[in-house]
Amino acid sequence: xxxxxxxxxxxxxxRRLLTERVSGYWLQGAGYFxxxxxxxxxxxxxxxxxxxxxxxxxxxxxxxSNWDPAQNQFGFLPAIVGTVYVTALTMIMGTxxxxxxxxxxxxxxxxxxxxxxxxxxxxxxxxxxxxFGLVALIVVVPFVGDYLAPAVGSSATxxxxxxVSLVMAIVVTPFMISLSVESLEALPDELRESxxxxxxxxxxxxxxxxLRAAGPGIFSAVLLGFGRVFGATIVPAMLIGGQTHLPSSPxxxxxxxxxxxxxxxxxxxxxxxxxxxxxxxxxxxIVVVWLFNFSxxxxxxxxxxxxxx
Amino acid sequence: MDRYxxxxxxxxxxxxxxxxxxxxxxxxxxxxxxxxxxxxxxxxTIVITPPGSxxxxxxxxxxxxxxxxxxxxxxxxxIISAVLAxxxxxxxxxxxxxxxxxxxxxxxxxxxxxxxxxxxxxxxLTVIIAxxxxxxxxxxxxxxxxxxYPIMTRYTDEAxxxxxxxxxxxxxxxxxxxxxxxxMTARAALPGVIAGIVMGxxxxxxxxxxxxxTAGRSTNMPxxxxxxxxxxxxxxxxxxxxxNAEVRSHAYAASFILIIAVLGLILVSKLxxxxxxxxxxxGRHS
Lengths: 309, 286
Prior knowledge:
The complex is a heterodimer of chains A (about 300) and B (about 290).
Chain A: H1 3-55, H2 58-63, E1 67-68, E2 73-74, H3 77-108, H4 111-124, H5 129-138, H6 140-151, H7 161-185, H8 189-197, H9 202-213, H10 215-231, H11 234-239, H12 257-263, H13 265-268, H14 272-306
Antiparallel strand pairs in A: 1-2
Helix pairs in contact in A: 1-14, 3-7, 3-10, 4-7, 5-7, 7-10, 8-9, 10-14, 12-14
Chain B: H1 3-42, H2 55-58, H3 64-91, H4 99-114, H5 117-131, H6 137-162, H7 165-173, H8 178-188, H9 190-206, H10 209-212, H11 232-240, H12 245-276
Helix pairs in contact in B: 1-12, 3-6, 3-9, 4-6, 5-6, 6-9, 7-8, 9-12, 11-12
């Protein structure tokens, strides 16, 4: 052991401590990145929407149904109604199926069937939505236009709110299923055993015990699905028909908030006020998603207290 | 209805729902592979042929520009995003930050996770307008990276959290620094980390709304990082809206390529996860 190796190990320790300090700064920066990014997005969108907000009253824009950027008419009502319509229809169609399928995978399926079905559904959650839109153009659109709409006494080309909702239900169910299955499978087996032990049937166990115990998880799965549908862009843009008017029936064409941005993007660069209006749509989207996330968090905590086991 | 009938009824309903979902998905995948595969096999060269000057109108040439655009935009974006996401996830562990801080950041990550992709596109667009730049491949990379970041961070954070504490304790016990310990934890959690990154990659390669306004939606070959570009999903979106039947048929070939890429990525992530499971203590397979 000479002095040289001693100073060598000193050096090494110094280097390690330096790495530790430098990486500490980097990691800290990365740790704050999510907050900074969120603040930047909100501020940038807010700043760019100011020209519009200073010119027109918010209430008037949200309740006016006259959308004509060329004439400086910015009524967001048709797009808002379209978005609500699509989201509500999708959730009505998708949620029961998603929850039932999740129950099947978590409680009924066994062995290879279970692995097969659940990995299949995981794969599907990753398929790009543009592919769903494309397949819908040759499968769902003719079906709705030729059979379903005439059957309920409505004439339509097949492009419209109902078609979008149907396809969006297909897009989000795998996503909701895999999250719900996760929270059902996280439940301890004692819950099932004790419920069956006091004489409940399997379905009663699921309905009374498991769905409540996993309730907060399933609830947030549904809300995440809601957020997905609410902000979906590509599928509505391909299938909704892109006409800005108040939809008169579920089979009518329409517009959602994201498709408004996509369809009027061409005019965006030239007219500053239109640009500001479309950026304001982005702001509305993020504010609604934020409000939903926040209230979901609170509700989830309350449900957890109420249905704790 | 007595309880046994109810039980049978709902058992059937649950099975029916699962069967319905699986059937719809089989339909979607097989239509894509059948229609797309037919167009693709008739003329596989469209994937490696640059587009003609009037590609969107007449369908001359192929869509190599979008294939390259996807690779050059989503590839770098995934690398940037993965580095950031892994760093954030490491910082959120108990060695570095308090529980309160990581709860706060997680709340923001949840909000970002639920933020519609088009908002990221619009955000990057406002930045482009603010600095007076043009839409280009570079901004496409930025938009996709921002979009992937919350997805990857959440998966990575979960994977790191589920790594056994014994790894941490053992490395600290050997006199390792926090950073060295974090690397070891990341190694023990590697299958989960890889799965998260590949998941982000798959989501990024399939997303159109983020790059729609930021990358330039160009119909020429990408010339450089500050030149306009397009990606496969945007191309499919544009092709599907075309009036030309030939261009529309190309959309199916492009979606065939895209679905194969996504399915391949998922397969790769499963294989990699299995391979790196040897770093996990006890050879945990996940």
